[in-house]
Amino acid sequence: MTRPIIRRPALAGALVAVATSFVSTRPARAQDLEPPQPLPPTPPTVDTGTTNEADEKKDSGLGLEWVWLNADVGTAYANMTSFNSSALALQQSASSGPAFGVGAGVRLIFLSAGLRFTDMQLSAFNLYEINAEAAFHVRVWRIDPYFGVRGGYAFVGSLNSGSVAVATGSSMSNVSSSVAVHGIDVGPMVGIDVYFAHWISIGLDGQAQFLFIQRPPAPIPSVPASVPPAEQQAAKAMIASEVMSNPLYQQSGSSVGLGLTGMAHLGIHF
After folding, report:
1. Please, are residues 155 and 214 in contact by the beta-carbon 8 Å criterion?
2. pLDDT at position 95
3. pTM for this prediction
4. How confident is the model over 238-243, as a mean pLDDT?
5. What stretch of H or E contains 192?
6. H-helix segments, 227-270
7. 256 contact partners, CB below 8 Å, separation of at least 6
8. Mean pLDDT for the stretch of residues 71-99
9. How far apart are CA 60 and CA 51, in angstroms?
10. pLDDT class for 166, splitting at 50, 70, 90?
C-alpha cells in the first residue's frame, strides 16, 4: 500500500501567508472603529467695535428721538385781503409785528408730527393760530434740516379801532371789539436745527401760509345804561344810522390772505 506524499514546505508557507494577512488587517479594522478626533477649537473673534463706532459717527451719538418741545420767538406779517376780499369791511387788514409760540410733538427717525400755538402780535390785530404740523427730516451729523406743512385754526383776538372805524367813518368805541374774524390757515414750512447734545438744540424756521378768513355780521350794539334817559333816544337813532351805513352789521365778509413768519426756536428732545 502506497502512502500519499504530503508536501510540508508548501503547507507551511500557506499557513504563514494566512496568518500574516490576518495580523495586517486587524489594525486597519480597529482604526476604522475609532471615533473621529475633534477639530481644534476656533480662536474667538475679537469685537473691535467697528460697527458701533460707525453707527455713532453716523448719528453723532444722538440716538433716537421720541418727543420734542419748542419755544419760538420771531416776526410775522399778515395781510388778510392779499388775494381776494368780499365785504370784509376792514380798512387796515395788513400789518406786521413780533410773534411768539410753543410747540410739542413726537418723532420717529426722519418723520415728526405735532401741535403748535402761535401768537402774532401785529400792529392792527392779534392773530392767533392753533396748528397741526408734519415734517420730513434729513439729519446729517448734528445738523437737522426739515421741510413740511402746517395748518389749522386761525382767529383774531382784537382789532385796532382804526382797522374798523376808518373804514366806516364810525366814532363808536365798541365797533372793533364786536367784530369777530376767524378761519383756517395752511402752508409750507422749512427749517433747520443744530443739536448741541441729544436733548437740546436751537434752530430757525420760516412759513408761508394762506389765510381763509370769515367775518360774521357784527352784533348790533345797544345803548349803554350809563346814558341819561333824556339822551337815550338820540343814542338809539345814532346806532340805527350806524347799522344802516356800516357793512359790518349788514352782512358777513370773507377773504383770502397771506401770512409770513420767521422764527427762532429752542428745542428740548427726549
Report:
1. no
2. 93
3. 0.70
4. 76
5. strand 182-197
6. 229-245, 247-250
7. 82, 83, 84, 85, 210, 211, 212, 213
8. 91
9. 14
10. very low
> Widest CA span of the chain, in angstroms?
184
Q: What topology is assigned to 59-269 in CATH?
A: Porin (2.40.160)
CA-to-CA dists, residue 196 to 3, 44, 199, 200, 266, angstroms: 119, 39, 8, 6, 11
Buried b / exposed e along 91-107 (16+ C-beta atoms within 10 A): ebbbbbbebebebebeb
Classified as helix, coil or strand, 199 is coil
User: Which set of grid coordinates corresponds to residue 111?
Assistant: 418723520
Domains of the chain by residue range? 59-269
CA pair distance 140, 138, nearest whole angstrom: 6
Cβ proximity of 154 and 184 under 8 Å: yes
Contact, 118 vs 100, CB < 8 A?
A: yes
Question: Which grid cell sits at 189?
Answer: 414750512
Residue 1 has pLDDT above 60, yes or no: no
The position carrying cell 368805541 is: 173
E strand or H helix that includes residue 161: helix 161-168
Share the mean pLDDT of the chain: 80
Query: Hunting for cell 418727543 — which residue is that?
Result: 67
Q: What is the pLDDT of residues 30-78, one digit of tens each?
A: 455 556 666 666 666 555 544 455 554 455 678 889 999 999 999 999 9
